[in-house]
Amino acid sequence: MIEIEQAEAQLSELDLLASMFPGENELIVNDQLALAELKDCVEKKTMEGRSSKVYFTINMHLDVSQEAMVMFSLACILPFQYPEVLPEITVRLRKLNWKRILIRHREDVTFDSTGDEMEKLKKFSTFEEKVFSVNGARGNHMDFGELYQFLNAKGCGNVFQMLFGVEGQ
């Protein structure tokens, strides 16, 4: 696929997403300059002048139960060679109160796209919050030893050292 075809595919996918998410603030193109450059490149049939990647966010309100609604936000930055090169996708299920989140470690694994192979790669069967017993006079610090044992049991003991910079025991 040549670069112009890739740009046309990106533009048509953005149009498709706009029709799938027509509500206000459902689909937000975060970088309008990149979108304008993309449209310009497709019209002129040349990739010269394209400096920014298309960056968009999809926001959805999900009804989890009758009482609760969850804000789901998916941010995506399309590489210049998309759809040949897949984008990195960030999903935010709720607004986090941290100033920024850093990627400390990344593992890229190739697999044959079968369900069995995917299940073997999963370390956790469900997404849930774990609470470990608290220690200390004020009772506000969890037991990191229990956290390390939990991670070790799931085959993720090396993550403890990556996150906290100390060897677990």
Automatic annotation (TrEMBL):
Domain RWD per the UniProt entry, residue ranges: 8-95
The organism's place on the tree of life at top rank: Eukaryota
InterPro entries in the cross-refs: Phi-like (IPR017359), RWD_dom (IPR006575), UBQ-conjugating_enzyme/RWD (IPR016135)
Annotated PANTHER family: RWD DOMAIN CONTAINING PROTEIN 2 (PTHR15955), RWD DOMAIN-CONTAINING PROTEIN 2B-RELATED (PTHR15955:SF8)
Protein name per Swiss-Prot or TrEMBL: RWD domain-containing protein 2B
Annotated organism of origin: Tupaia chinensis (Chinese tree shrew)
Phylogenetic lineage: Eukaryota, Metazoa, Chordata, Craniata, Vertebrata
